[in-house]
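Human:
Class, as today's exercise, you are to examine the entry below, and be ready to discuss the fold:
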Amino acid sequence: MKIADIDLGSRPVMLAPMEDVTDPSFRLICREMGAAMVTTEFVSAEALVRDVASTMRKLQVNKAERPVAIQIYGRDPEAMVDAARIVERAEPDVIDINFGCPVKRVAGKGAGAGMLRDVPKLLSITRSVVQAVNLPVTVKTRLGWDCENKIIKELALQLQDCGIKALTVHGRTRSQMYTGQADWTLIGELKQMPDLEIPVIGNGDVTTPEEALDNFEKFGVDGIMVGRASFGAPWIFRDIRTYLDTGSYTPLTNAEKMQLLRRQIHESVESIDEYRGILHIRRHLAATPLLKGIPNFRDTRIRMLRAAHLDELLKILDEIEEKYL
């Protein structure tokens, strides 16, 4: 699969953009584990134009994580164009436009998935961004606003006409948020449309290597994007990649998985500071499958997620590894 001239190989599996998750350290680990491409946290166009320091930091990418996309979102066409030009100066490989974020503070204000209620404006923004930059532009969106308005098949052709180089589709509507089960049927139907020539990347509920292979074979997608299943589990890309290439995989040991989590903690603290770095990593620690289903773990889990200092947290992880793993 290619995005413009960027060759991602056969049946690529990519890291989805996620706010407060896909920081540089996590992206790099996922690349090392086998992710074909990674994407930054989504970036507010308005905040970029205002030169907000915390937003500008999200544009930092390094050579080791390439190919990498920077994703922008917004509802103002002029701001989106200006933001795309700012992003281009950060030299990512791809600029991705977010038309899929369902959360109220984004979609409720007309950005993200909120753009699905104003398709002419969505297309105008896409066309303007494509024309404003020299980098390949891609789009990530959903099936539609709600179950009565699943417009993705018509929208895909319109976006292709705007000049995008690939389309990622999350198999839910905005009204579904993250509830229920992702429906890949319409995603698969996109691949049957003879006039749709750009790559189609499927997203939603891929949690195992077996599910990844099944979606490739059943729906014919060009690529797959993994999101929430990577929380606290960057090794999912290693498992999926190995399974797709060889038909089998051997999971990492618990010690190897714990080593990756420790690396995330250290790099999070080093890149921000101790207090905010630990806050940031709690989402991964809370979600990691490594610590799921351990009997009598509740009290230790609470202590782990309340730890405020690096030494304290590492000591608790030592205890977990010795006692439970």
User: Anything to note?
Assistant: The CA atoms of residues 123 and 252 lie 44 Å apart. The mean pLDDT is 96. The longest strand covers residues 68-73.
